[in-house]
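Worked example 3 (structure in, sequence out).
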């Protein structure tokens, strides 16, 4: 009982869950480095599994965890905005490629959502599931907002966005190899467009240029998706 009381006391402290989250991420980063940086063991994915396991083991509800770790959630916004720094360093190149960048982002945003909705409809998914699927190719903070806006499950959209990012990072090296793609600009942009935050982090490991274009694609995809997805959902009659 003393151990149980000890756990109940500390589990209710906000600082406790921040520390748990940070330790989980540090351990997950170490595991990822030991595994050669594979996207299958991405630090975000591994730390998420560790925290979920701890919550289940200790029978702690998600709201209790979120109350303690919400400061980290708050930092998602500033972290996303901070991606503007490497973009500024390559502003001249971005201006030259502005038209293809805009066309690619709009096309990619629509295609990613439309294919997800089409597959969901073909498999007889219910309307809220389909609405949760639509923003799967957008970074989690934006996916949550879009899901709330169109009537999906925000938590499910966030989870699907994480899975999409992991799959995108796993598939990217093979796709680049098959297409014989060497351009850091194109590789970074495609990673940011299809795998959002995960893809941007992965691109940063390649070069600052790839990371800058990945961040640009992630941001533009989020903006275009928030504008176009409500219209696309109506077009599908959901």
């Amino acid at each position: 009982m003393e151990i149980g009381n000890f756990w109940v006391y500390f589990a209710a402290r906000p600082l406790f869950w921040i520390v748990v989250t940070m330790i989980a991420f540090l351990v997950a980063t170490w595991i990822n480095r030991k595994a050669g940086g594979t996207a299958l063991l991405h630090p975000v994915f591994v730390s998420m599994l560790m925290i979920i396991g701890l919550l289940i083991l200790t029978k702690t509800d998600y709201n209790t965890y979120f109350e303690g770790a919400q400061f980290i959630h708050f930092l998602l916004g500033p972290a996303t905005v901070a991606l503007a720094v490497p973009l500024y360093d390559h502003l001249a190149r971005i201006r030259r490629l502005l038209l293809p960048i805009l066309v690619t982002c709009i096309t990619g945003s629509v295609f990613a959502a439309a294919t997800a909705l089409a597959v969901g409809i073909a498999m007889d998914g219910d309307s809220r599931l389909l609405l949760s699927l639509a923003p799967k190719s957008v970074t989690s903070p934006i996916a949550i907002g879009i899901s709330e806006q169109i009537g999906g499950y925000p938590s499910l959209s966030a989870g699907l966005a994480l899975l999409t990012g992991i799959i995108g990072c796993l598939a990217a090296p093979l796709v680049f190899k098959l297409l014989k793609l060497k351009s850091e600009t194109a590789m970074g942009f495609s990673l940011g467009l299809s795998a959002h935050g995960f893809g941007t982090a992965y691109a940063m490991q390649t070069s600052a240029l790839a990371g800058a274009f990945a961040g640009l694609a992630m941001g533009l995809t989020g903006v275009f998706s928030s504008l176009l997805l409500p219209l696309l959902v109506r077009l599908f009659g959901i």
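Notes: Residues 84-235 form one domain. The two ends are 52 Å apart (CA to CA).
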